[in-house]
What we know:
This protein is of the alpha+beta class.
Amino acid sequence: MHFELDLSQLKRVSPFPCPLQKIFFSRGLNLPIETISTRKDHFEVCLRLSSGSASCCDVINGEPIRMPYPHAVWKMPMQTCAPRDKNPRDVLAFIYPSESLEIFRQLGLIPDASALPFRLNTEIGFLVEKAIRLIGSLYSPGVADQLDWIAVSLIKEILLSDEHRSARQTMEQKIRNIALHLKTRCSESHDFHALARQYNLNYTRFYREWNRCIGMTPHQYVMQARLDAAAELLRLTRTPIFKIIEAVRFSGNYAFYRKFGEKFGMTPLEYRKRFQKESPKPHGEEKLRP
């Protein structure tokens, strides 16, 4: 299944600096091997999402490119490109008029290499699925606008994907980013093994480096972050303490009161009374998410 749709004549609700000219989507695209490279007078960013093969081989401007799936290819106007393997591939391509190229350069959306691998992380996967879903209602009001935004967002996410960002990170930077992830999502449950894999770390090394940089275990760090989140809710809201304990997902009332006293040297009620006297009038119960 594959199709190419022309968006150039569709009315947009609001102006966009680089509207899509066409969008191409295919599941199981089987390209014939070409002995003569083709040239097309447009700018294209092609996402090769998956294939039965581990890698894809093309020739771009006479240069063989072998790239693992998934990956993205930036095809420049009048650039030659020819496939060199028969393996069916799932493809989502965004096609722009050639004059859009300069806008993409100004936005920092053109990489140095013509092709880049990426990890199909949660955000990229969500945007891909949303784009595919919207294609099915292309002629509905506002859909072309959404696709314009999704295409640029996807390209930006790929350029900033974890794989390339982590390649430039020091070990301490990786650990600090993981710590920030845990702090901002402290009320959620966490699989530390899975989190380490997201940053291309085996768990043993992650645990060792974490303790070296942070000085406590990941579990202890999350507990401290939940106590800090609870303290913020005590200062800024009138939410009952039992609801705060539920909001930060602490493991039981007794454990919360004991740990809170150890960290802040007073009970949660004493903490609230002290800091609400010193602070502006607190909000109501609407702030339940730390």
